[in-house]
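Hi team, as promised in this morning's meeting, here are the two structures we talked about. I've kept the exact order from the run log so nobody has to guess. The first one is mostly here for context; it's the second one we should focus on when we meet again. Sequence first, then the predicted structure tokens.
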Amino acid sequence: MERKIVIPGTLLGKADTGKQGRGTFREGDNIYSSRLGIVEERSGYINVIPLSGVYDPAVGDAVIGVIEEASKMSWMVDIKAPYPAMLRVEEVPWRVEFGETARFLNTGEVIVANVSSINEAKNIEISMRDKHCRKVEDGIIVEIQPSKVPRVIGKNGSMVSLLRQRTGCWIFVGQNGRVWIRGEDDKMALLVEAIKKIEKEAHTTGLTDKISKFLGNENESD
């Protein structure tokens, strides 16, 4: 399917044929683009994925964050959003006493967390309560543009499955444009190249087939 680039104000469809998603606004029965980007239809929602820019957080997103500051009962975490996110001691899997936050998570350390709330003032809170959340203590983190995350994941996880199968590496893709990978050094090097190729060519069609050929095995359909 051709990937259509739209500008703010472009008519995307009718409300009775799709739900209003990210990067869109509704007037009457029509859904329009609110930004420059690529149209994506997923799970019945019409979204516009920005061509570039910072991470636009949404409640429920799984993110990879870097600890910026440890205070007495919370941490401030960089999740590549316009503002840092707060992680409270009640939202971690450890019993943390007052003033002992740095013993568990200190400046520069990396975590996997979920966006738990965003208020009208754009204050962001995150949680490590889900089973996939943890402190990152091995592997490497690859940074990509947050807008390219859907292409790294692929339809129904097809692209990330291909990357796992062909490299033998473990991969976790954060919605905020950080990718955690673990594996043998040479395989991780190949995986990083593939991820960067996806990021660079995210706007093109037939990308899964291109990555399959790049990794050197049988073709996959996009």
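And here is the second protein, the one for discussion:
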Amino acid sequence: MRQLIPAAAPRALLAALSLPIALAGCSSLRVPKAAAVHERRIDLQRAADALIALERPLAAEIAASRSLWPLIDHGLLRRLHRSRRPRVELRSDATLARRLDAAEGAARQLPAQLLAGAEELTGPASGLAGLYALASGLATHSLEALAAAERVGPSAGEATASYLRGNVNMYVADLYDAHFDLSYIGKALRDAYRRMGGQRTFGARLSAAEVARIARFYSPANTRLRPHPWQSFASA
């Protein structure tokens, strides 16, 4: 948890805390531009390698979620809450439960981060890592929450059951957004590769054909869920 420094803290303490920040800023200013660009290219290559390595577990999660998606849409029950406001709930059946289990299991196999030390990536690679982390987190959380809403029984308590079932629309939206975020990774990689010199600069370490193949995997056609859920929510 972040600790706040009281306004009356001694100046010596504030100076000691600010010294490492100042030194870090000075040292970053001394990094030659060529060295910084080189580091960003290496990081982009590392990110591309990690994206390739994640294609198999992601393909399993995408396939499971796509198999589940029509059942979620058809299983959404629109009803009036006690407040007379519409609420979307999940109408369960055996097929939905089975496919939810499969999708939840596939999502749990996804690493939380693109690669070890992802927080230290520089340049465009940092953005790619952020997109992946957001997508992975949303997919895992939303599928776990949907599964919990589908499984919840009387023993969980009325408040818990009401909360899980009453927020189904949010879980469905998060699952959609997870795959939407994945679909941007391909374009972001392709644009960064081109800006940083492309085939002429990276050569065999990261070829244009390899980048194009990665971009096809992380594309709207391959990752997004259809139809969009907002129309279903609006009709609740």
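Starting points for discussion:
Residues 40-234 form one domain.
The chain has one domain: 40-234.
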